[in-house]
Design goal:
single chain; mainly alpha
Length: about 270
């Protein structure tokens, strides 16, 4: 894929009209604010609080999801290699395995609910709007059709990390560009949520995206270069992950998980997570 085409696809996938979270999910921010954890003395203090929340949320989101994203992206990208005759079934098994692991690693039902809603929407977006007619993309489309059928049967969860990794790999985007997009969309959805809650304004949000979010995303990417998911041995049993527990997916912000879990208990709310 040429650099210009990849850049154009990234711009397309950054469209705020796509089902990537900013209008339906706050990723715990609404609960964080309503529980009184966001300083509210003045605008500058609120802005600093949003930056702090975004930093913790992005790092925890990256530590938990990037290993799954990389594994799913690699499994789907292999379908674009010449000679992958029966690769669809093999890719489906691997994607389902990582999707199941991602489900088990999420610590609250609120996050699972929002994640599956967005993941299914992204798979639908690829199948109905973005899939090409070339033979190599035909195999990717067969995989997406199989995943969507598995979701309807209750065999596949279809989390957000699964949907976006499958979509970007099917379109031929590189793993580095795809991971950067994945974290950028999460950070942007947090700021979009803050705007809808009237915590910050759109001008402040764009200033944060330009000057504060970029280094946060790059830092989170750099901190999770070596993380990996649990391998499967030839006998089908889980293998050794690594020398320490830090080698695998992890939640790094327990308070954020606790507050996100309490979202359904809020007296009034505008988001579903």
């Amino acid at each position: 894929m040429s650099a210009s085409l990849e850049e154009y696809i990234l711009l397309l996938l950054s469209d705020s009209n796509l089902p990537t979270g900013g209008f339906i999910a706050s990723s715990g921010l609404e609960s964080y604010v309503q529980h009184g954890f966001l300083p509210s003395s003045d605008a500058a203090t609120k802005t600093a609080g949003i930056i702090a929340f975004t930093r913790r949320s992005v790092h925890s989101y990256a530590a938990l999801n990037l290993p799954f994203f990389a594994g799913i992206h690699a499994a789907v990208a292999a379908l674009r290699c010449p000679g992958e005759g029966e690769g669809v079934e093999r890719a489906y098994v691997e994607v389902k395995r990582l999707d199941d692991l991602n489900e088990s690693m999420m610590l609250n039902h609120i996050a699972r609910r929002a994640s599956t809603a967005q993941g299914v929407a992204l798979l639908t977006l690829y199948e109905r709007a973005l899939a090409g007619e070339e033979e190599v993309e035909g195999k990717c489309k067969k995989l997406v059709e199989k995943l969507r059928m598995g979701i309807r049967k209750g065999e596949v969860y279809g989390h957000l990390v699964t949907g976006l990794a499958v979509l970007t790999a099917s379109l031929g985007l590189s793993i580095d560009a795809s991971k950067h997009l994945f974290l950028f969309l999460h950070a942007r959805s947090l700021l979009s949520s803050a705007i809808r809650m009237n915590v910050i304004g759109p001008y402040v949000s764009h200033r944060l995206l330009l000057h504060d979010v970029r280094p946060l995303v790059e830092e989170a990417l750099a901190s999770n270069l070596t993380t990996k998911t649990i391998p499967i041995e030839d006998d089908g049993m889980p293998g050794e992950l690594g020398a320490t527990d830090e080698d695998g997916p992890a939640t790094t912000w327990p308070l954020g998980e606790i507050l996100a879990t309490r979202h359904d208990l809020l007296h009034s709310k505008i988001f579903n997570s």
